[in-house]
Amino acid sequence: MTYLVIVAFVAILGSLAAALVFMMRGGGQGDDTGSLRKNPMAKALAFRVGFSILLFVVVLLSYWMGWIQPTGLPLRG
User: Fold this and answer.
1) Which residues contact 68 (CB under 8 A, 6 or more apart)?
2) Average of pLDDT values for 32-44?
């Protein structure tokens, strides 16, 4: 489970970095013919949001199924 979370965070940060690159290059602007191409920055940000929600649901489901246990400070002292 630890490796899954690490891979998910790397994918989230990678898509955020890709969106930054597309933004700095002026992604989403039309070409010379006036037709708009697909906006890769919006796709990268949508992937990041979707993957973040998916990671949250997987962690929540894993806790509910008992695959992971909370650690750290006890809730009741």
Assistant:
1) 1, 59, 62
2) 67
